[in-house]
Amino acid sequence: MTAEQVPHYPFPSPAALEPPQEWAGLRDGCPIAPIRLASGDRALLLTRYDDVKQVLSDPRFTRQLDAPGAARVTANESGGVFGSGGSSMSGEEHRAWRQLVGKAFTAKRVMAMQPRIEAMAVELVERMAAEGAPADLVGAVGFPLPVRAICDLLGVPGSDREKFAYWSDTMLSMTRFGQEEIDAAQAEFDGYLVALVAAKRAEPGDDLISELLAMVAGLDGRLTEQLMLGTAKGLLVAGHETTANMIGKMVAMLLADRTRWEALLADRTLVRPAVEEALRFDANPGFGMPRYLSEEVEVAGERLPGGTTVICSMASANRDERQFEGAGELRLDRSPNPHVAFGAGPHSCIGQALARTELQTVLKVLLDRLPALELAVPAGELRRREGLIVGGLERVPVRW
To answer: What phi and psi, each to the nearest 5 degrees, are found at residue 200?
Structure first.
C-alpha cells in the first residue's frame, strides 16, 4: 500500500448516528489496517471483536504512548488525554493504583449516589421543560448532569463546575485547540487541583479526594500526590465528557425510531438492557483506544513487531457479526450483551458503574417526566462534535 493509499483516521461518517462505511469492509477483509493519524504518523487499526478484546487484555500492549517511536495520536505535541500524565505507569504501579482507586470507587458508593443523581436529573429535566420546547437536550441535561455527579463524588464546589467543561475539552482536543491554549488550560487545571487537594487535606470531607488522601497518608507514598492529581483529573475528564456525550447520543438513537421510545414507555424493565444496547450500538464514540506494543505479538494470525502503535476500535468491534447476532440492528432487549464500550482487561473504565447509573437514571427520568419527547429535527440533520478524541453530538433538539 503506497503512502497515498493509507487512509486518514478517524474516518468520516455518512450521518451522525451511522458508522463509517469502512468498518464493515475492514472487519471482513483487513482486520489489521494501516492508517494515518491527525499527527501524520502511521498506526494499525483493529476492527474485529476478538482482536480488540485480546489487545486490550494483553499487558504487552502498553499505554506508553510517549515511548520513542510511538505514533502521536493528535496534532498537539503534549498535554492531551493520551499524554504521559499517569498513563505511563508500569504494570505493577497501575495495578496498585487501580486497587486503591477501586476501593474508593466502589459499586456501593455509586449506589449510594443514585438518589442524588436522580434528584439532579429531575431538576435539570424540569428546568428544561419549564423553559419550553424546542430545547437542546445536550446543553440542558447531557452536559450538566455528569459534571454535577463527578463534582459531587470528588467534593468539588458547585460554583467551580463551569470551568471543567473547558479544561476537559482542551485535554480531549485533536485539532480543536492550539498548543498554547491547551498548555494554559492545563496549568490552570493543575493549579486548581493542587489547591483543592490542599483544602481537602486541611479539612477532609465525605468525598473521593479526601478518601484517597487518607489512603496516600497510610501507604508510604505508593500513590504519590502527583498520581493523585492525575487521578482526580482523569476522573473529571473521563467522568463527565464521555457520559455527557453518551446521554445525547443514547436519547437521539432511541428517538430516531420512535417505536423504541414507545417500547420503553410500555416496559420499564427494558431501561437497563436499552442502555447497554445504546453503548454497544454507538457509532460515534470517538477515537478508540491506542496501545503501544512493547514486544512482538501475534494478532489475528499476523506478527506485529515491537514498537507498533495500534488503535482499537471498540465501536467497530461492537458491531462485529461474529460476536453479535444482527449486530447492525438496535435491539432493546439484547441479552447477553458483552460489548466492549468500556474497554476490557486491566485498563477497562474504572467509572463504568457511575456511567451506567447516570445513563439509566436520566433515561428513567425522561420517560417519566416527558413521555411525549421526540426529536425536533430529522435524525439525519444531527451534527457530530468534531476535532475531539471523544465522539458526541453538537446538539440534540427535542420537543414534547
So the answer is: -70, -35
